[in-house]
Amino acid sequence: MKAKSSSKFWCVLTLFSLVGQIAWVVENMYLNVFIYKMFRATPGDIATMVSASAIAATLTTILIGALSDKIGKRKIFICGGYILWGISIFAFVFIRTDVINALFPAAVSAAAVGANLVIIFDCIMTFFGSSANDAAFNAWLTDNTESSKRGAAEGVNAMMPLVSILVVFGGFMAFNLDNPSSWVTIFTIIGAVVTLIGIIGIFIIDDEKTVKQGENYWGNVFHGFLPKTVKQNKSLYMYLLAFTVFNISIQIFMPYLIIYYEKSLQMANYVFIMAPAIILASIVTFFWGKVYDKKGIKFSSFTAIIWLIVGYIILYLFKNQALVFVGSLFMMCGYLSGMTVFGAKIRDLIPTGKAGMFQGIRIFSQVLIPGIVGPYIGKVVLKNAETIANNDGTTSFLPNENVFLASLIVIVLTFIMIAFFTKGDFEKQNV
Predict the structure, then answer these.
(1) What's domain 2-430's architecture?
(2) 94 near 411, Cβ under 8 Å?
(3) pLDDT, position 425
């Protein structure tokens, strides 16, 4: 892979993917815990936060992705975005009840104000994160990988969410997440690391070969949504549709996963149980990109979805810690392997030189629609969930296993779609 396979390329891919995913783990998994523990969030609050963030991520990726194509540079958006992303994460340090009471002394409920502030700041953080990672970094990765090796690169990129979960789980073990001061330390550390990586990127990212698109900027913005574009790239949009359904399945349970482990299953040591599963799933994901390169989309996607189905069934039926570990292992292997093969296939089908303007469409499938539909389904499923009383007199809901049943139903639809898309010569007829 010549320069595109150089040690510098793999260094940038690993470093920026890992740190970006650490920041996303804090947002996608632990920000839900933060708003739940600090401000007694309801399923509606969590669904609103996830949906608002999904909308912010999508709009940002569409606008910034097209702009990076128009300018012909990704580096400025990656580095500048990571720096501002880190600063916005640090800003959560100031969302505390003592600060809220000082700033809003007339507020009836500091918890309600705090929950709303978290949602607003989450959207701000998402703007910078999506500019840097979803729009610019992912476009840079598409620009700098060859088709024959794309699965391998995507395998590294897709395993980073699991590695980042392991890093965050391990790092958060030392903190009492019921203590506001712990969150101050967490947001300070994560914010500083993300900002530092943005600064380092100035010196290590090569950006000279990006294809500059000369069209009108707004033409670039709406390019991926035009009927003629869809007609010219039928296979791409078919797989984006399947990717959408796949991610809806994930977003039904993911916002509640840690709360389910800790509160519903009373797994105070869930980090020790999950760590081996995360390590094993990371290894599988790393190699699964190479399986895609050799076997193609049909075998690699079917296998990933079957793993996910097995994981859902086990997590729905059993609450024993050993079986929860097994179910979580299958679930994470299926989730990240699926992300790998869908990501690689979609990158393969994106027209050369137009990676930036197609990132918005990818985010529609990966973030926006799943981020709205998935949590809404989860909210409906948990409508009558059990509640517990907190020490301060408030109550909190307990997520239950029904979120995995709902996720199972949706992922079966993905399996059916892939079976249809890969039947006969479908791809050859519609590329």
Answers:
(1) Up-down Bundle (1.20)
(2) no
(3) 44
